[in-house]
Every structure is written in structure tokens, then in C-alpha cells.
């Protein structure tokens, strides 16, 4: 005996005759979904996962929507066809207005170019004036340096007694006041530079020699800055050469006296050699050392 009862076939068929109004049928696609500026087909399709609709049904619905839109567009064109044809007629005569705008733009362009040309000309003029100002300033600085050079050459000639200059009163050489005071101060202060030599004579003041060397070195720096081939410096070259030779003679005499300075001999010799080095006359220093009678 069969223990399993599959039931009556009429009862099974009645299960499919129930009301199907509660099934989740998909809603029609809204046109607004396609109006977004950033519409993306892949993103749009990903939002249709809960429509319970086959892919073929979706295709048919999209085709139907496309046909509906095409029909509406065609009806719209047919309804406004006369207005569309009259659009070309309404645009006739616009060439004159366009030409007027074009002429105005060209005139404005010419005005702008004219202003640009004036600004450029003014800029070039200002640049030339600034260059001229810089040149004048450079020439003025050179003139000051040349005057300073001449004054310093004359001062060194005065200090070294190269020229025969006399004071208005007594005819004695007019030494610079700073030199005289410095020498007196060094003697009164017991400076080792002015100690008497072994033979009892007063040595050459190293402080005065140092000032002479420094002033001559400054002369050389002015000549280098201005340019040694400047006509004024070329005219002053004999005087500068005489000043240099006189300073070198004084250094040589001081070096000879240093050999008789007793306990201060080495210190004075090194000080004089440093003055040679300051002048850049190492060769003259070597020659003077070779000529010493040690």
C-alpha cells in the first residue's frame, strides 16, 4: 500500500489561480533619470537591481522610450516648422550689425595698441635716462677718486719731502700735524721703535713708515678701481713712481738701521719686512736683505 498521498491535481492547480496583484512589478522608467548633467549609463543600470525585470524587458522598455521621444521631437518640429523657416529670414540684415561691432573692435584694438606704443616709448626713455644717470654717477665717483688720488700724492710728497715746500713763516718743512704729534708721543712714551741705536743715533720711526706705506697702498687701490690706463693717472704716474721709490729707500734705510738695534733687531726687521709685503715688494725686500752688512 502506498503511504504517500500527492493530493488531487485540481487542488494543486488552484494554488496558481490566486490573485497576483501583490507581485513587485517594475515602475516605468522616469525621463528625469536621463536629464542629470553627470548621467552615466553604468551607474544608472546599477540602480535597477530591485526592479525584478529581465534584461530583454528592460531593452524593450528603453526602445519604447526612445521611440516616444523621437515622435515627440518630430511633432514639435512639425508644429514649429514655420517659425523655424522664418528664423533664417529674421537673421537677414545682421551682417551690418556684425560689421559695426567689428569696426568698433578694430578701433578699440588700434587705441589699445597706440597706448601700448606710448607706454613702451616712455619705458625706453626712462631706461635711457636711468642709464645716463648711472653713467653720470659713475663719472662723478671717478672724478672724486681722481681728486682724492691727486691730494694723496701731494700729501705723500709733502710727508716724504720730495717737493721743496716751505712754510710761510720760517721756511722749514711743514710736516703734517698728525705725524709730528705721533712722533712726539712715541718718543715721550718710550716706544721701542724710537730707541737709540748702538751708535747713539735715532732710528727711523716705524710708525711713520707704516703710515706712508698704507697711504701708498691706498693710492694703488684707487688706481686699480679707476683703471691704471686712465689719462689722468698716466699723467700722475711719474709722481707716484717717485713716491714709491722714496718709500722703498726709507724702508731700506730702516732695514739697515734695524741691524744695529741690539735686542730689538729681530722685531724691527720683521716689522719692516711686513711693510715690504704690504706694498707687494717682496723682491725689493730680498734685495735689501742681501745688501745688508751683517
UniProtKB/TrEMBL annotation:
GO terms for biological process: Golgi organization; intra-Golgi vesicle-mediated transport; protein transport. Residues 29-101 form the Conserved oligomeric Golgi complex subunit 2 N-terminal domain. GO terms for cellular component: Golgi membrane; Golgi transport complex. InterPro entries: COG2, COG_su2_N. Residues 8-20 have a biased composition (Acidic residues). It holds the Pfam family COG2_N. Residues 45-79, 112-139 form a coiled coil. It is found in: Golgi apparatus membrane. Keywords: Coiled coil, Golgi apparatus, Membrane, Protein transport, Transport. Residues 1-22, 161-203 are annotated as: Disordered. It is a peripheral membrane protein. Belongs to the COG2 family. This is Conserved oligomeric Golgi complex subunit 2.
Amino acid at each position: 500500500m502506498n503511504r504517500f498521498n500527492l493530493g488531487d491535481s485540481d487542488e494543486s492547480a488552484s494554488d496558481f489561480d490566486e490573485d497576483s496583484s501583490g507581485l513587485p512589478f517594475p515602475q516605468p522608467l522616469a525621463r528625469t533619470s536621463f536629464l542629470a548633467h553627470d548621467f552615466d549609463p553604468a551607474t544608472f543600470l546599477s540602480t535597477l537591481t530591485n526592479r525584478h525585470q529581465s534584461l530583454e524587458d528592460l531593452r524593450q522598455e528603453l526602445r519604447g522610450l526612445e521611440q516616444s521621444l523621437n515622435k515627440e521631437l518630430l511633432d514639435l518640429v512639425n508644429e514649429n516648422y514655420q517659425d523655424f523657416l522664418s528664423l533664417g529670414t529674421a537673421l537677414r540684415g545682421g551682417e551690418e550689425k556684425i560689421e559695426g561691432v567689428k569696426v568698433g573692435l578694430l578701433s578699440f584694438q588700434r587705441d589699445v595698441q597706440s597706448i601700448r606704443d606710448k607706454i613702451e616709448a616712455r619705458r625706453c626713455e626712462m631706461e635711457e635716462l636711468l642709464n645716463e644717470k648711472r653713467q653720470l654717477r659713475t663719472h662723478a665717483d671717478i672724478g672724486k677718486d681722481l681728486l682724492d688720488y691727486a691730494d694723496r700724492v701731494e700729501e705723500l710728497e709733502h710727508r716724504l719731502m720730495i717737493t721743496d715746500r716751505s712754510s710761510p713763516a720760517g721756511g722749514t718743512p711743514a710736516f703734517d700735524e698728525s705725524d709730528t704729534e705721533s712722533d712726539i708721543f712715541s718718543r715721550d712714551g718710550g716706544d721701542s721703535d724710537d730707541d737709540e741705536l748702538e751708535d747713539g743715533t735715532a732710528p727711523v720711526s716705524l710708525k711713520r713708515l707704516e703710515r706712508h706705506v698704507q697711504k701708498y697702498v691706498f693710492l694703488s687701490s684707487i688706481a686699480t678701481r679707476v683703471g691704471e690706463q686712465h689719462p689722468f693717472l698716466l699723467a700722475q704716474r711719474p709722481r707716484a713712481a717717485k713716491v714709491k721709490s722714496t718709500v722703498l729707500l726709507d724702508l731700506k734705510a730702516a732695514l739697515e738701521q734695524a741691524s744695529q738695534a741690539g735686542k730689538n733687531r729681530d722685531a724691527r726687521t720683521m716689522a719692516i719686512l711686513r711693510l715690504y709685503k704690504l706694498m707687494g715688494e717682496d723682491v725689493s725686500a730680498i734685495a735689501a736683505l742681501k745688501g745688508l752688512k751683517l
